[in-house]
Amino acid sequence: MYAFNPLKDLLNAMYSPKCASCGNLLVGDERMLCIECVSHIPYTCFATMTDNPLELLLEGSIAHVKATALMYYEKNEVSQHIIHAIKYYGNLKLAHHFGRQLAESIIASHRFDDVDIIIPVPLHPLRWLERGYNQSREISYSIAKKMAKPLENHLIARSHYTSTQTRKSHQERAENVAGAFKPHNLKRLCGKHVLLVDDVITTGSTVKACYAALSQAEGVRVSVAALAYAGN
Ligand SMILES: [Zn+2]
After folding, report:
1. Could you tell me the distance, in angstroms and rounded to a whole number, from the CA of residue 74 to the centre of ligand 1?
2. How far is the CA of 80 from the centre of ligand 1 (A)?
3. How far is the CA of 7 from the centre of ligand 1 (A)?
4. Nearest to 230 by CA among 23, 36, 82, 20
5. CATH topology of domain 17-164+172-229
6. How far is the CA of 151 from the centre of ligand 1 (A)?
7. pLDDT score at 179
8. Fewer CB atoms < 10 Å away: N or C end of the chain?
9. What is the largest CA-CA distance in the chain?
10. How far is the centre of ligand 1, averaged over its atoms, from the C-alpha of 19 (Å)?
11. Is residue 85 a contact partner of residue 94, using CB atoms and an 8 Å limit?
12. CA-CA distances (angstroms) from residue 223 to 52, 112, 114, 208?
């Protein structure tokens, strides 16, 4: 029988785990997301697909690129809620969870078997201080662990503090981020196949700018992995 206990009800409401997308209370075996939201995640099949839309977007700018993204980024839908929870609300458990899923798809595809090191798109130190974490590094952490490859967090750095890319046009994004990255250890990068990891790729201007820094090292190859692809 239900006994009226406002304090207990209030505490339950405050501390019961809620779905990171729709906010409904989680029940049974549900973790982080409810089953309804999980069923609406728009997964891509890019990992196994040569010439997938992300590779076509990057191929003119990144030589011999292999690229994958786990899901399509859809506005006002589950995938946007997931990315926002990770990027703006510090839900690092979600970053690790989907980082593992991305890694599993990469491993199963066997297209990225010769990757040597994992490098996250770096944040500018001021942005890192502002946010307290780098979401791409958190995603990379799970990928590196699953793939049993080293995570190299300091081989490139963001030297410009750039404004957010969210509301910029294709050209504005490219201008905003061009020259924003610098390599730190060209010797260590030489001859390596780098898997560059970002949270969301829209026009590709950020990963292209990272490539400009990484490719200063002789014989470096760059492949790209993202949680979400927001291109058309
Ligand atoms: Zn939900």
Report:
1. 15
2. 13
3. 26
4. 82
5. Rossmann fold (3.40.50)
6. 32
7. 79
8. N
9. 72
10. 5
11. yes
12. 13, 8, 10, 11
Q: Give me the residues of the chain with pLDDT under 50, please.
A: none
Instruction: Tell me, in angstroms, the distance from the centre of ligand 1 to residue 228's CA.
Output: 18
pLDDT of res. 178: 75
Asked if residue 53 lies in contact with residue 229, where contact means CB atoms within 8 angstroms, the answer is yes
Per-residue pLDDT, 121:
96
CB 208 within 8 A of CB 65: no
Tokens of residue 204, six digits: 């590709």
Cα separation, 63 vs 176, whole angstroms: 22
Among 184, 187, 190, 176, smallest CA distance to 221 is for 190
Q: How remote is the CA of residue 54 from the centroid of ligand 1, in Å? A: 28
| 165-193 pLDDT tens trace | 566 667 666 667 777 899 998 999 999 99
Q: Rounded to two decimals, what is the model's pTM?
A: 0.89
Alpha helix (H) residue ranges in 88-134: 92-109, 125-131
d(CA 27, CA 90): 23
Q: 91 C-alpha to center of ligand 1: Å?
A: 15
